[in-house]
């Protein structure tokens, strides 16, 4: 306005808007109006919900188990003193690692590194056991070996001090920590376990899953072996599990159908489990148990390695009764030998 | 080529190098990367840390002897640390350039770099802190630039980076109690560069004041040739320290950045050996009454803090110190609040205290079991502590194993049950996670099986947990893992800590039936 006043000579009429400007300005305002309406409609939440009770739809974990073989044994019990030799003999008894791992496979090895402990205390998977299993996987043609666990103590400390970090970097294994974005919800039709947060990143690429567990005493559920080992795949408020511990552990047999499980009973944590803490808690038993049925493996471990009465191990009976495996290991095809 | 080799560029290279060296050390102060890096180097070079802890403890702890490495060049050349090495000074130099009046005209910049009386405040602060140290409380950590920067990095900047880029710094997000206050202080100090360039360095920095005092004796300094000078004041254009190179140089304010020499169009300025005293202001300008006031404030701070009783009989149950910590009063004599221990802690249990250990204990490390727990096989906090507030103990000393079996383990406190909140005790529900995770052998937490009649008339067999105080080391993993997460049914409190004889719980280290059993087995 002031411009037109100060220059009266201009031929343009006062306060006029060109057609172009008119259209542009109308267009902008119109687009903003339409945009806010559209966005509001899109974002509008017309119904309330009850916090904490939203319907979750979680991941369904697939089975990694092989088809049952009528000829080859499903359980191998091998007595020996060295990890590599004994584990190799155990796999040999089952028909060789080639039965489980083929060329190009990505193998997830799930150790138990729940606690920040040196290997000698037998509270965690022994580094030599991991080294032996990874070696066998690579020999069978595995493209990659992934190692993952969600420990109770600090993850970096647990992997570091159990000696598994060193093995992973030595052998070029993929060590996956339970990072912030590693978890997704899992759905399961378990006795207790229905919806739970699950450590998913290791499964994004894995084609085979091997559980590699130490054999340990446990204060509440009596023993932590290959079935209890899957605890480390869950996140969230795991400390609630203890309220129904036997149901939960038996649910693990439903949740996880592994390709193979290996129970390391060379040195067994006999007391003060699952943490141990003294060498006197550890007993040398010189046995590796490997198999496709974790119930059979754990049943052997409980009676022959921890040397206890299977009747008290409630979770294994629960799992057996639900048809998730066979606790009567003597009824399965098994091989027992000396490495 | 000549242009590139200007001393200003040499200095810039040094600044970038030391700044990133500092950041590198902060980053690798983590179990995964620590190896043998001398991560405490900057804190150990800091002569104020050595000087002030020498006053409070009458000793110079381990690596603090490195401060000599910095005292020597300061006595020769002045405060070169401030503009060549100090990472916090470099931060302010850079942000001052970025946020400041760099595009404003020359005159404005010259005015911004003139000396002001306000700049003597840092000497009053230093005097106050030294007076407090003579009284018996170490408070330099509030404002010592290395401690301040370390603390800001550990408790604010790294967690912030991890918040935006999950798992880039920590596997799981770290939290720090009261981080907002430390963050706002950082933002405030950086932001003040807009008002006064290098506000922190010129006005507040006690280390700058300390080095300024030392540089009184410096043999070299910037000198102005009055026959060449045309009084254009252009030397002030980029003067970092506001040290008046255009007239009598204030030796204790000069950061030896050499900008003035290169900005002088007449080549009137040079760095000279023993120029005449008449052409300089040799000593810091602090009026005696201000110095007296600083002394009063420092001694007053000590007296008021100590008579509040937080380090004595009225100690707070939450003041659970890291393993290897010295007795509380000695701890306050040593801790510089640099929070390196907090950075290196693998479980995030170490937290900067707010007022739990009194005003003097602000930002010193305490354990918060809600956030983390003390890892038994870990003494990282003591390994990185530069002043020995947390002693550099070994795992064997901490766990009382090997040659230290007779002494027993280092205890941080004792766990107590709150049976009203405990599931098997009060709510007919099985649990004992606490027993499972208890890391000592035999477990300090044990349980007794009981069969009770439930409300519906059916029997239930439960395990109800107990603590054996002789075995409990106060690591707090029971509290951390308790499913009653808002206020755990088992909580560690400071009583029973072995670092103080006054705060122990049991006589003779405590002999209970489990300990006797243990001794029997060992025989």
- CATH architecture term of chain A: 3-Layer(aba) Sandwich
Instruction: State the end-to-end CA separation of chain B.
Output: 78 Å
* Most strands sheet of chain A: 9 strands, mixed
Radius of gyration of chain A: 29 Å
Write structural notes for this entry.
The complex is a heterodimer of chains A (339) and B (523). With 339 residues, chain A is of the alpha/beta class. Chain A has a single domain (75-338), classed as Rossmann fold (3-Layer(aba) Sandwich), CATH 3.40.50. Chain A is built from 10 helices and 11 strands. Chain A has helices at 2-6, 19-43, 83-93, 127-139, 155-161, 164-171, 201-205, 245-255, 294-305, 314-321, and strands at 75-79, 106-111, 144-148, 174-176, 183-187, 195-199, 208-218, 222-224, 260-269, 282-291, 334-338. The radius of gyration of chain A is 29 Å and the shape is elongated. Chain B is mainly alpha-helical and 523 residues long. Chain B folds into 2 domains: 7-281, no CATH class; 328-522, no CATH class. Chain B is 40% helix and 9% strand. Chain B has 22 helices and 10 strands. A two-stranded antiparallel ribbon of chain B has the order 1-3. In chain B, helix 3 (47-57) runs parallel beside helix 8 (121-135) and helix 8 crosses helix 12. The longest helix of chain B has 22 residues, at 7-28. Chain B is elongated, with a radius of gyration of 27 Å. In chain B, 49% of the residues are buried. The A-B interface holds A 115-118, 152-157, 160-161, 177-181, 218-220, 237, 239-240, 242-245, 272, 274-278, 280-281 and B 30-32, 166-167, 171-173, 346-347, 372, 375-378, 423, 429-433, 435-443, 447, 463, 477, 481-483, 485, 521.
What key attributes describe this structure?
heterodimer; A: 339 residues; alpha/beta; Rossmann fold; nine-stranded mixed sheet; disordered N terminus; B: 523 residues; mainly alpha; two-stranded parallel sheet; elongated
């Amino acid at each position: 306005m002031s411009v037109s006043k100060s220059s009266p000579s201009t031929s343009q009429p006062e306060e006029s808007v060109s057609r172009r400007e008119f259209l542009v300005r109308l267009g902008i305002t119109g687009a903003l109006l339409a945009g806010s309406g559209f966005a509001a409609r899109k974002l509008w939440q017309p119904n309330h919900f009850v916090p904490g009770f939203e319907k979750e739809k979680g991941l369904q974990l697939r089975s990694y188990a092989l088809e049952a073989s009528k000829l080859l044994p499903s359980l191998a019990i091998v007595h020996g003193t060295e990890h590599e030799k004994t584990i190799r003999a155990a796999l040999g008894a089952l028909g060789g690692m080639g039965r489980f791992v083929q060329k190009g496979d990505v193998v997830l090895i799930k150790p138990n590194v729940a606690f920040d402990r040196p290997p000698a205390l037998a509270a965690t998977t022994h580094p030599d056991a991991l080294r032996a299993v990874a070696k066998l996987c690579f020999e069978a043609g595995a493209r990659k070996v992934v190692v993952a666990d969600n420990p109770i103590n600090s993850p970096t400390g647990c992997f570091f001090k159990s000696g598994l970090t060193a093995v992973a970097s030595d052998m070029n294994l993929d060590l996956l920590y339970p990072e912030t974005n590693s978890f997704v919800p899992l759905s399961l039709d378990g006795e207790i376990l229905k919806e739970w947060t699950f450590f998913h990143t290791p499964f994004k690429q894995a084609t085979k899953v091997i559980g590699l567990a130490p054999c340990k005493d446990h204060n509440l559920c009596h023993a932590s072996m290959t079935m209890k080992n899957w605890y480390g795949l869950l996140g969230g408020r795991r400390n609630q599990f203890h309220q129904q511990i036997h149901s939960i552990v038996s649910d693990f047999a439903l949740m996880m159908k592994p390709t193979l499980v290996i129970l390391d009973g060379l040195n067994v944590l006999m007391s003060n489990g699952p943490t141990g803490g003294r060498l006197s808690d550890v007993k040398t038993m010189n046995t590796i148990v490997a198999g496709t049925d974790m119930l059979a493996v754990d049943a052997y471990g409980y009676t022959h390695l921890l040397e206890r009465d299977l009747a008290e191990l409630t979770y294994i009976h629960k799992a057996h009764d639900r048809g998730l495996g066979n606790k009567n290991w003597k009824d399965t095809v098994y091989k027992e030998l000396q490495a | 080529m000549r242009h590139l080799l200007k001393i200003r560029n040499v200095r810039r290279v040094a600044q970038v190098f030391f700044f990133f060296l500092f950041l590198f050390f902060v980053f690798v102060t983590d179990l995964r990367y620590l190896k043998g890096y001398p991560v405490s180097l900057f804190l150990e070079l800091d002569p104020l840390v050595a000087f002030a802890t020498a006053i409070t403890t009458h000793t110079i702890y381990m690596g603090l002897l490195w401060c000599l490495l910095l005292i020597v060049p300061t006595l020769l050349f002045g405060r070169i640390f401030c503009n060549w090495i100090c990472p916090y000074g470099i931060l302010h130099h850079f942000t001052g350039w970025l946020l400041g009046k760099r595009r404003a005209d020359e005159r404005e910049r010259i005015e911004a770099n003139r000396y002001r009386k306000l700049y003597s405040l840092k000497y009053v602060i230093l005097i106050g802190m030294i007076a407090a140290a003579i009284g018996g409380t170490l408070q330099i950590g509030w404002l010592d630039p290395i401690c301040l920067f370390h603390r800001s990095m550990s408790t604010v900047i790294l967690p912030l980076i991890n918040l935006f880029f999950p798992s880039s710094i920590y596997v799981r997000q770290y939290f720090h109690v009261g981080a907002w206050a430390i963050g706002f202080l950082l933002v405030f100090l950086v932001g003040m560069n807009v008002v006064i360039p290098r506000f922190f360095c010129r006005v507040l920095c006690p280390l700058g004041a300390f080095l300024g005092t030392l540089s009184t004796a410096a043999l070299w300094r910037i000198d102005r040739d009055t026959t060449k000078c045309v009084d254009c004041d252009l030397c002030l254009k980029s003067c970092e320290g506001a040290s008046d190179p255009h007239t009598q140089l204030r030796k204790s304010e000069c950061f030896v950045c050499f900008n003035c020499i290169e900005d002088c169009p007449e080549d009137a300025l040079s760095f000279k050996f023993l120029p005449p005293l008449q052409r300089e202001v040799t000593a810091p300008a602090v009026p005696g009454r201000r110095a007296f006031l600083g002394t009063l404030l420092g001694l007053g701070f000590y007296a008021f803090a100590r008579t509040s009783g937080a380090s004595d009989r009225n100690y707070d149950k939450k003041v659970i110190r890291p393993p290897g910590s010295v007795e509380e009063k000695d701890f306050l004599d040593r801790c510089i609040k640099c929070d390196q221990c907090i950075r290196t802690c693998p479980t995030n249990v170490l937290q900067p205290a707010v007022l739990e250990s009194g005003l003097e204990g602000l930002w010193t490390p305490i354990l918060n079991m809600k956030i983390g727990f003390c890892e038994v096989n870990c003494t990282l906090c003591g390994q990185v502590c530069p002043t020995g507030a947390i002693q550099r103990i070994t795992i064997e000393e901490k766990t009382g194993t090997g040659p230290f079996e007779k002494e027993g383990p280092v205890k941080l406190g004792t766990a107590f049950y709150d049976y009203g909140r405990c599931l098997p005790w009060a709510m007919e529900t099985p649990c004992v996670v606490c027993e499972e995770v208890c890391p000592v052998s035999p477990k300090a937490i044990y349980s007794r099986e009981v069969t009770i009649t439930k409300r519906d008339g059916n029997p239930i067999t439960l395990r109800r947990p107990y603590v054996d105080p002789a075995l409990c080391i106060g690591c707090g993993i029971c509290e951390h893992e308790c499913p009653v997460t808002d206020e755990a049914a088992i909580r560690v409190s400071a009583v029973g800590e072995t670092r103080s004889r006054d705060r122990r719980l049991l006589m003779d280290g405590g002999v209970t039936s489990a300990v006797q059993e243990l001794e029997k087995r060992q025989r």
